[in-house]
Design a protein that fits this description.
- It is a single chain.
- By secondary structure, this protein is of the alpha+beta class.
- Among the domains are: about 70 residues, no CATH class; about 100 residues, no CATH class.
- Helices cover about 30% and strands about 30% of the residues.
- It is built from eight helices and 13 strands.
- Strands 4, 5, 6 and 7 form a four-stranded antiparallel sheet that branches. A four-stranded antiparallel sheet has the order 11-10-12-13, covered by helices on one side. A three-stranded antiparallel sheet has the order 1-2-3.
- The protein starts with a helix and ends with a strand.
- The mean pLDDT is about 90.
């Protein structure tokens, strides 16, 4: 039997001389770096089971240590985006905005060299001396640029154009929230859209006029959601001029 993620995680903290405690009832770790961080290994465990790569553990530790570092506003503003995140995290952003029963729109800081992201918290806005409107403005500009830089790959299935984004970002949900989404996708796919986001590395979009096409992707969505290291939701979204909303969900059974 292989070494568990918990053991690998604890060994990595010990190797770095970082003190920690754990709550066995919730599986939460409390890592002592400056302000103590509460850390859940749920997503890391899924990633390790999916990839079987022990190097994902030191990368994860590096990411949470980086999370404890407060960037200046001038440094952070280039890396701020909004993402779709499940709302069942033990510790989520206190700036999240519910979009559905299962998913929130969350402001995040992305570290592209590390391939990680972290939630922006209200306390960080105080440290930066900015408002949520400031965050929304810079995130909109950053997402528009990211979408313009991404490739919208397409496949034709039974007369339906199925699109998916290829991007350098470590997660693919921000393009769905970009202010220029209609401008980019309408000429190639149509508008409004239907979309699925089973995990942070998997997005499908297609024209909403193909009302029954969701049946073709249902099995893929449920399978991807069940095994992905960063699952988001099995919901089906509609995206149009009025924004994004969930209009249903695939059964996970």
């Amino acid at each position: 039997m292989g070494t568990s993620v918990e053991v690998l995680f604890e060994r990595e903290l010990e190797r770095r001389g970082i003190a920690f405690t754990a709550d066995p009832s919730t599986g939460t770790y409390f890592v002592q770096v400056g302000t103590p961080l509460s850390v859940s290994l749920e997503n890391l465990s899924r990633q390790y089971a999916y990839e079987r790569d022990p190097d994902c553990v030191p990368r994860f530790v590096e990411a949470i240590l980086h999370r404890a570092t407060t960037l200046s506003w001038s440094s952070a503003r280039e890396s701020i985006l909004f993402a779709l995140e499940p709302n069942d995290y033990v510790e989520s952003s206190d700036l999240r905005l519910p979009l559905s029963k299962r998913v929130d729109r969350v402001p995040i800081l992305v570290d592209q060299p590390l391939g990680t992201w972290r939630f922006i918290m209200r306390e960080m806005l105080k440290e930066w001396d900015v408002t949520m409107d400031d965050v929304t403005q810079v995130a909109g500009s950053a997402m528009a640029l990211a979408l313009t830089s991404a490739n919208l790959e397409r496949s034709e299935i039974d007369g339906v154009t199925l699109g998916f984004f290829e991007t350098d970002l470590p997660l693919k949900s921000p393009p769905l929230l970009a202010p220029n989404l209609k401008q980019i996708v309408e000429p190639l796919i149509g508008w409004p859209l239907h979309a699925v986001v089973p995990d942070q590395d998997f997005i499908y979009v297609w024209a909403a006029r193909h009302e029954r096409f969701f049946e073709r992707v249902a099995a893929v969505v449920v399978r991807e959601y069940s095994v992905a290291p960063h699952p988001v939701t099995t919901e089906l979204f509609e995206i149009g001029d009025d924004g994004i909303r969930a209009i249903g969900a695939f059964s996970e059974r």
